[in-house]
């Protein structure tokens, strides 16, 4: 019952964000249909091929993490498990990790708790990768982002420098926060929440340092670059599917990828609603795209990627159901 209620909350969140996007004019259904009806869907086919490369890279990277534990599942079975995870995530948020570990247990009897541990390590490196990409995004598009901040905040009436009030507020909070930590450091260390954060930080550091135990750390980093590189190109090639977006800068694709990744933190099925709203807001606010065009592009990218993953994932689901478990993953002991 708890899981059903949780899923209904996820669906409600997706429906609410979608309703808001349509009601506010961010998504114009008539214009969306008109633009999509003119789309060249061969670019969606290209995106699907890139998705195979991205998920295949993730499967190969996962095998590297499983190797020190003494497990050596084939690439085909690991790739199938990854696809099943993405298929599940597009239906029920946060279910993908357990689904792919369960699939690998079914095919190779790898204990779920052990494979889940490697997935946590994966997520740590993905979060680190996302922060690096956000930093690159900020550096490359600094002028536009600064202009966006200045447009979004009011300047003090008597300020000759025109420094936004928000910047002064942020600086003030940082100073007050820094002084609080300095003078109350010992008391803060006794707080339960601080202890939990410290423990989480230690786990994060341990996960990052675990790469030293890998037999192929260079290959692990290569696959990580491949995963995020494909994510970037998967969005960029879809610009060319609809003529009005073909001239957009490659930097726009980087902003879409990073904004979309942050939007996926909200637990909606396949990013429905959250991805559309956040990405459309970024396109309209930062790059000054017309609001309806921003909604069209965000919705086209999100729906193309989601529907493709569901279609291909369904094929892998059928394959996993009719195939026999191999039970041959363990060939050595760590």
TrEMBL record:
It is a multi-pass membrane protein. It is found in: Cell membrane. The chain crosses the membrane at residues 40-57, 124-142, 162-185, 220-242, 302-322. One of its GO terms (cellular component) is plasma membrane. It holds the Pfam family LPG_synthase_TM. Keywords: Cell membrane, Membrane, Transmembrane, Transmembrane helix. InterPro entries: L-PG_synthase/AglD (IPR022791). It comes from the Bacteria. NCBIfam families: flippase-like domain. This is TIGR00374 family protein.
């Amino acid at each position: 019952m708890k899981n059903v209620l949780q899923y209904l909350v996820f669906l409600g969140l997706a429906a609410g964000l979608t309703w808001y996007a349509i009601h506010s004019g961010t998504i114009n259904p008539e214009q969306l249909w008109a633009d999509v009806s003119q789309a060249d869907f061969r670019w969606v086919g290209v995106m699907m091929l890139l998705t195979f490369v991205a998920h295949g890279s993730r499967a190969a990277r996962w095998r590297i993490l499983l190797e020190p534990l003494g497990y050596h599942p084939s690439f085909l079975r690991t790739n199938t498990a990854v696809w099943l995870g993405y298929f599940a995530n597009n239906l029920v948020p946060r279910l993908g990790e357990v689904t792919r570990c369960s699939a690998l247990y079914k095919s190779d009897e790898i204990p779920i708790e052990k494979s889940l541990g490697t997935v946590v390590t994966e997520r740590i490196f993905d979060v680190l990768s996302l922060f690096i990409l956000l930093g690159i995004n900020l550096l490359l598009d600094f002028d536009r982002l600064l202009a966006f901040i200045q447009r979004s905040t009011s300047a003090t009436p008597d300020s000759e420098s025109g420094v936004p009030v928000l910047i002064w507020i942020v600086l003030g909070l940082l100073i007050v926060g820094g002084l609080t930590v300095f003078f109350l450091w010992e008391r803060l260390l006794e707080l339960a929440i601080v202890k939990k954060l410290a423990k989480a930080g230690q786990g994060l550091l341990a996960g990052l340092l675990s790469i030293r135990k890998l037999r192929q750390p260079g290959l692990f980093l290569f696959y990580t670059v491949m995963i995020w590189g494909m994510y970037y190109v998967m969005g960029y090639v879809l610009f060319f599917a609809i003529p009005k977006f073909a001239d957009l800068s490659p930097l726009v694709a980087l902003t879409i990828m990073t904004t979309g990744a942050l939007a996926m933190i909200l637990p909606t099925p396949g990013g429905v609603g959250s991805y559309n709203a956040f990405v459309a807001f970024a396109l309209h606010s930062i790059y000054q795209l017309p609001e309806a065009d921003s909604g069209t592009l965000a919705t086209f990218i999100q729906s193309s990627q989601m529907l493709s993953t569901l279609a291909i994932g369904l094929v892998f689901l059928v394959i996993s159901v009719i195939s026999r478990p191999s039970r041959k993953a363990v060939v050595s002991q760590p």
